[in-house]
From TrEMBL:
It holds the Pfam family NnrS. It comes from the Bacteria. The chain crosses the membrane at residues 20-39, 59-78, 90-113, 119-135, 142-160, 172-191, 266-285, 291-309, 321-343, 349-370. This is Short-chain dehydrogenase. Keywords: Membrane, Transmembrane, Transmembrane helix.
Length: 388
């Protein structure tokens, strides 16, 4: 049967389009808002303490939109079915926005109602993915529901922990751990694959090591380290396991021939973002909790999601996979934000505190992304445009 032609607005023609756009716009706004909250110039009236609101919205707000965009783009490739388009995507975006507003205190809803609204989005995403995979009989990819379900469970746990204890430190670590592991899992597939394809086109030379027993051992080690760290972050076991995971994933990264990708900034970004994972593990192992969490949160998660959104948008809108100076600058600014936030948050840098400068750089990086990529997301594919 021939596939039906979608006739609605381009922004709702594929899952990555609306979710990458709202994720980028949200990233521009939410960190400066947090800075205003932290400085006492703004209050968030939701059910969370200010620090918890910040952690929740970065992990379960920003990341959930990127994850939805990625999955709703990948699943049609896995199943061979038409992507979700039009009204279903619009409803999902509305659910995501409703969650952000409820968590911010709009409507002054009770905590249980905020939890219900916020949890609806990841549950809907998981359900829709399950339906698509089952309809396409692509059973081997049902395993993607495991980390997606863990992510949703961590979100619900965040709300419950905050209601019971007034803070949600354990659930915040759990959410961060799940997202970091997704980077190790998905990044561990796409980074060497894209690198291999690019290097193979350029001729002879060493290629990335294929996925094998070493990678499986590195993933298992990271999963164990992240699990122990979530439960007991200051314990000797967590530090030892994190140190081991840092070594395993630094070696894993070196096996992917990233040093040979200097001529491709778009590809190099993926290697640099992944490098923040072993760096974050090492910092946590050394007892530098703030540096470690921000190397993972800003550097690894922020960097990898930004790079993947760039690449996926180019590839799926008919554009060459070339970052250009503008997008390369955006990624470089984000790397600077990660390093300053991790290592110099209270330093005086050009008359600004490191915290303020890092927040500004983060917002600038995503503003560049939205300004450059936003029109691509909202317009028809380049290859399908009708000449004037």
């Amino acid at each position: 049967m021939a596939r039906q032609t979608y006739a609605g607005p381009a922004i709702l023609s594929y899952g990555f389009r609306p979710f990458f756009l709202v994720a980028g716009a949200f990233a521009v706004l939410v960190v400066p808002l947090w800075l205003a909250v932290w400085a006492g110039r703004l209050q968030v009236a939701g059910p969370f303490a200010p620090v918890d609101w910040h952690a929740h919205e970065m992990i379960f707000g920003y990341v959930s939109a990127v994850l939805a965009g990625f999955l709703f783009t990948a699943v049609p490739n896995w199943t061979g079915r038409m992507p979700r388009q039009g009204a279903p995507l619009a409803v999902l975006v509305a659910l995501w926005i409703a969650g952000r507003l409820a968590v911010a205190g709009v409507g002054a809803l009770p905590a249980w109602a905020v939890m219900a609204i916020d949890a609806a989005f990841p549950l809907a995403v998981a359900a829709m993915i399950a339906v698509e995979i089952a309809a396409g009989r692509n059973w081997r990819n049902l395993k993607v529901l495991i980390p997606v379900s863990l992510f949703g469970a961590a979100n619900i746990g965040f709300h419950l922990e905050a209601m019971a204890r007034g803070s949600a430190e354990v659930s915040a670590r759990a959410g961060l751990a799940v997202v970091v592991f997704l980077i190790l899992l998905i990044g561990g597939r796409i980074v060497p694959s894209f690198t291999r394809n690019w290097l193979a086109k350029r001729g002879s030379g060493a290629l990335p090591a294929p996925f094998g027993k070493y990678d499986a051992a590195a993933l298992a080690g990271a999963a164990l380290a992240l699990g122990v760290w979530t439960a007991a972050p200051d314990g000797l076991a967590a530090r030892a396991l994190l140190a081991l995971a840092a070594i395993l994933h630094a070696v894993r990264l070196m096996r992917w021939q990233g040093a040979r990708c200097l001529a491709s900034p778009l590809l190099l970004m993926l290697h640099v973002a992944y490098a923040f994972v072993p760096a974050g593990f090492a910092a946590l192992a050394a007892g530098a909790a703030t540096a470690g969490t921000h190397l993972l949160g800003v550097g690894a998660i922020g960097g990898m999601t930004l790079a993947v959104m760039m690449r996926a948008t180019m590839g799926h809108t008919g554009r060459a996979l070339v970052a250009g100076g503008t997008l390369a600058t955006a990624f470089g600014v984000l790397v600077a934000a990660a390093l300053i936030r991790s290592f110099a948050p209270y330093a005086d840098l050009a008359g600004l505190s490191g915290l303020t400068l890092a927040a500004g750089l983060w917002a600038i990086a995503f503003a560049i992304f939205v300004g450059r990529v936003g029109p691509w997301l909202a317009a028809p594919d380049a290859a399908r445009r009708t000449p004037n």
